[in-house]
Write a structure and sequence with these properties.
This protein is mainly alpha-helical. The protein contains 8 helices and no strands. The chain folds into 2 domains: about 150 residues, no CATH class; about 160 residues. Helix 3 runs antiparallel to helix 4 and helix 5 runs antiparallel to helix 6. The chain is flat, with a radius of gyration of 23 Å. The termini are far apart. The relative contact order is 0.11. About 5% of the residues have low confidence.
Amino acid sequence: MVRQGRLFSWLVLSTAGLTLGLIVFGAVVRVTDSGLGCGNHWPSCNGTFFPPLDNVTAWIEWLHRLFAALIGLFGLGALALALVAYRRRNRLVLTMTAIAAVLFTVQSTLGALVVVLDLPPTMVTLHLGVAMLLLGALLAAGVFALYRPKRTYGRDSFTALVYLTATMTLLIILTGALVRGSGSTLACLDWPLCNGEVLPIEQGRSAVIHMTHRFAVVGLGIMSAMLVWMAFRQRQQPVVRVLAAVAFGLYLMQAGVGALFVLSAAAPIWGAAHVGLAASMWAALVALGAVETMNHRLLTQIEDEQAWQLPASQTQPNPTA
């Protein structure tokens, strides 16, 4: 059983790493305008199994699909191992792995619909959102399988901030996808201002959408900085402090790359890096949230055991009576 648990941990975290790679690859598909490289055909590519060798956009899209299929195979293996190793001793791991399997099915279906329906922005955004949730579920399953709390504590303001910051990160990733889908990527040609203005209300809808995304990113930065500060004040576990610091570092890099993306007139390399760093920050926050959840869960179990033991001890006869 221990061997199966170790194999599961390796497999589920490898699947999470592949999923992160797929998200970045998806960004490459997007910034190179390869989303319809295979036309409206799915699962075939322009009606054939292999695209022509001289069609670069078709190969980018086709390799993206093969990448997704590989993740599906890894995910099936992780689910099978979870059923064997964690069905009785840690149902939380099995539950998160099963959720990941469902999310992969939904994400694959959305990927097909995105191609068939000519890349509608809302569907593309939803496709990205489900991919992020899939990454989160896989990471949570891995943390639940590997992490063993040494200290326990109840939920407090730090825990709430972890969950809130992770949620905010996911929402900003989705709004970033909508910025591109609405054609607002280069509505603001300078940074940090928008064509010389802080509030470009008179510049039109696209500029407002773009600048709203930037303001949300600033808010996320404040929350991320507070998260690091509270982690070092309220938590002693190195893993909590490291994950909080890593998330903040990824935020700084992601914000900087976002600026370069604008100043470079939406160069594809910066667009893909922007998405990859945002996804990595989301992953770090999900892992941190999973660690917090495990600490609270163990404390709840201890309290439940004490609650059961107390009545038993009270009913035992007193030998001195």
